[in-house]
Write a structure and sequence with these properties.
Elements: H1 3-15, H2 27-45, H3 50-58, H4 66-75, H5 79-88, H6 92-97, E1 103-104, E2 109-110, H7 113-124
Length: 130
């Protein structure tokens, strides 16, 4: 792999994709950096339950408000419980629509098929989301 190709990939990752790229001298320094980063994340999130982190994760999806995330988490309190519900579905269509009838907010409206499909793709797809 030419060095120019590698440098272009690093630049694209930082500028286009918005990621921070940490450059290290060797694998030992990389491992040390990852250990330090892991400890920092553990301290940051140690007081949060899986349910809280799951709700925050759900709210990163476009169109999924706090009320909608709360409704999903009321039914499936962890990602594992949601995945188990997907596994229990008989067909892919049933999986896609699993969350569509969850009632959300003050008016108790359905979550809807579009968000249900998006969440199904997020949690069950093995390929990049479109």
């Amino acid at each position: 792999l030419p060095e120019s190709t590698l440098l272009q990939a690093v630049t694209n990752t930082q500028v286009i994709d918005g990621f921070f790229v940490k450059r290290t001298m060797d694998i030992k320094e990389s491992a040390g950096y990852l250990a330090l980063l892991t400890k920092g994340l553990e301290r940051l999130y140690q007081a949060q339950s899986v349910r809280e982190v799951f709700a925050r994760q759900l709210m990163q999806v476009r169109g999924l408000s706090g009320e909608k995330a709360a409704a999903v988490v009321d039914r499936y309190s962890t990602p594992a419980s949601l995945l188990a519900a997907y596994d229990a579905c008989a067909t892919a269509k049933e999986q896609e629509m699993l969350l569509s009838t969850i009632k959300c907010g003050r008016l108790q409206r359905n979550l809807g098929p579009a968000l249900s499909r998006t969440l199904y793709q997020l949690y069950c797809s093995h390929s990049p989301l479109s």
